[in-house]
Amino acid sequence: MPSLLESPWNNDETRPIIAIVEDNDEDFYAFVRAIRSQEALRQMLSNYTFLRFHDGDEALDYLMRGGNYEGLKAPLPIFILLDLNLPGTDGREIIRQVKQNPNLQILPMIVLTSSASPSDIQTCYRYGVNSYLLKPMGVSTMQQTVQTLFQYWFQFAVLPSYGQVPI
């Protein structure tokens, strides 16, 4: 099982970070339970660390090394999973800013949201999101979605190198 990092200041930098931007505790822990319930998925992600952000402002500060994260020298995450409807800066704006930043635009960004709005879907892809997934209802569909998501991104896709520190 990937570890859950409380603060990027405590990272030992040996395990790549998967950033998760999700304000809803119930959705976040349903996601974590879906991983914990599947041995193959736990094994696949055992060398990674999850770092959760509860709102868009904190996530952007971390990624851009602003606010409380100014001076942080830790590597960037290798993958960002985010909700759209967040307190403060919403997921659409996070995607826009990350994909316009030359130091960050390489990061894979996946939206996992309850919004099936065609406008949201088009906006996210226009801004450069790599994938748009709807939050599934029910335990078994959540498990299947999470398994498929991580199998694709961590078994089949080739991700950028870990260890890149923002300039």
Structure description:
It holds the Pfam family Response_reg. This protein is an alpha/beta fold. It has a single domain, classed as Response regulator (Rossmann fold, 3-Layer(aba) Sandwich). Helix content is 39%, strand content 16%. It is built from 6 helices and 6 strands; from the N terminus they run E-E-H-H-E-H-E-H-E-H-E-H. Strands 1-3-2-4-5-6 form a 6-stranded parallel β-sheet. Helix 3 runs parallel beside helix 4. The chain is globular. 29% of the residues are buried.
Observed structural traits:
single chain, 6 helices, 39% helix
Offer a quick outline of the entry.
With 167 residues, the chain is an alpha/beta fold. It has helices at residues 25-36, 39-44, 56-64, 91-100, 118-127, 139-156, and strands at residues 3-5, 17-21, 49-53, 79-82, 109-113, 131-134.
Q: Please count the helical segments.
A: 6
Question: Which CATH class applies here?
Answer: Alpha Beta
Strand order of the largest sheet: 1-3-2-4-5-6
| Main sheet specs | 6 strands, parallel
Q: Element order, helices and strands?
A: EEHHEHEHEHEH
The domain count comes to 1
CATH T-level topology: Rossmann fold
Low-confidence segments, given as residue ranges, are: none
Number of strands: 6
Q: What is the average per-residue confidence, as pLDDT, rounded to a whole number?
A: 88
Distance between the termini: 31 Å
Instruction: From the alpha carbons, calculate the radius of gyration and give it in angstroms.
Output: 15 Å
**Gross morphology:** globular
The CATH homologous superfamily corresponds to Response regulator
Structural class: alpha/beta
